[in-house]
Amino acid sequence: MRTTHRPLTTVSLALCLFMAALEMTVVSTAMPTVVGELGGLQSYAWVFTAYMLASTITVPIYGKLADLYGRKPVLLFGIGLFLAGSILSGLSTSMNQLIAFRTLQGLGAGAMQPVSLTIIGDIYTLEQRAKVQGVFSGVWGLAGLVGPLTGGLIVKYLTWHWVFFINVPVGLGAAALLVAFFHEQVQHKPQKLDYAGALLLSAGVVALLFGVQGVGRNLLALPVGAVLLVAFVLVERKVAEPVIPMSIFKNPAIAISSAAGALFSAAMFGATTYVPLYVQGVLGGSATLAGGMITPMIVGWPVASLVAGRLLLKTGFRPLIVGGLGLSVIGTGLMALLLKPGSSLLVPELAMALFGIGLGFTATSLLIAVQTSVGWELRGVATASHMFFRTIGGALGVGLMGGVLVSELLKDSRIPVSAANELLGPEHGKGLAPEVLRTLSGALGSGLTINFWLICAASVAAFAAGLFFPRVKRGEGTTISVSDAAAPH
User: Fold this and answer.
1) Radius of gyration (C-alpha) of the chain in whole angstroms
2) Among 34, 46, 98, 198, which one has the highest count of C-beta atoms within 10 angstroms of its own C-beta?
3) pLDDT digits (tens, 9 = 90+) for 376-392
4) Quick one: average pLDDT of 164-176?
5) What is the pLDDT of residues 187-210, one digit of tens each?
6) How far apart (Å, rounded) are the C-alpha atoms in residues 34 and 43?
7) What pLDDT does residue 489 have?
8) How far is the CA of 190 from the CAs of 69, 198, 240, in angstroms?
9) What value does the mean pLDDT of the chain take?
10) Contact 362, 350 (CB under 8 A)
């Protein structure tokens, strides 16, 4: 058995996470321009939610597969799908094509982040893991700095299609390093994947997403989704190899981390999706300037994460979680209260910086708390379950906000949605009649303001959940064994 080369394996994993971080900033920067060229503002949210939906429903499945068959083949498969989706997204000629290929990209992303973080949990001890966060903090910080600038320059000097093509060399480099330098010993057992549970989970999440985005008949999907998810829980309590072992939630640290993670992710993805749209569509900023509004959050996050990795060994998890979520409430509150038409760009920059610092303290502490609560044989599924709740929170949050935005834009039947597409085009709606432009800008601003209050509400709810996090220091939590977690209930 060859030995894993930890430094180069870490570089490979850092490249995987760099792609995920860069994807967030670059695509958010380019999307208003994409809508201006392809049309389909009413489908704006779906470019993000399709990606998050695909990654959400596959995260726990990939986590289980990583525990059964090893981390390496699952991560390589995810990278391959992600790159295929990136290339096809860059070749898209319509909004529907872009949504479809973003879905494929999301199917790969569902493996990349949770399995990468699981490998970190495998090859480093708890103390080392807390310190190595600095490396990954630097990755997120670098992506936060270069992403908006890169996206703006690509849109200005090339075409928006290249924001997807830039993933290819990074992904190929990550895969090559992983193949060459990461080696694991997997004990294969006669186990099988819970296909019924995976199907129920996927169908339930899809139904919920449709339900939160619309009115009328779409609302019928909400009870359907609830029934499917209840059926999923019942199945998981009985099967021998569940996709998500329900008993891991007996541990309060894991249960609270899941709830808080879902809520703060709804706020985070909502902010990264709709703040750039507000800056470009309402304040009239350029694509580069709009994407740059995300930078304070993505830079503040890794800085706080680095500090949190060092502090939690002394303070324990709870102070960092509660304090971080408190900062996120302040940041999103400022966003909702002060971001108005004609307001200074310092408002979103300050709000996003506070938000990012708060989430940096919180996300690091929650993830390490979850990984500390289980052994190796469950670390993959526990990490993936935590990431699942974060991604489902983000997908449902962005979907709900997309429904709010479309409802506001369609209030005045005299204004076609195509006019909104023109508002986001390179001419910023200069060809529209002044009355149409004024009405459209007002509707767009009104819908986005409601969304900012929803983002703030999600942050407040996450803070409330964090208050229930148990008062334990690291190492004092109950570790769940695989036999306990896999036992029917």
Assistant:
1) 22
2) 98
3) 666 767 777 787 788 78
4) 89
5) 655 566 677 887 888 788 778 877
6) 11
7) 30
8) 11, 19, 12
9) 77
10) no
Chain-centre distance for alpha carbon 23: 10
Rounded to 5 degrees, what angle do the CA atoms 188, 481, 127 make? Answer: 95
pTM over 0.90, yes/no: no
Tokens read off for 442: 């007002």
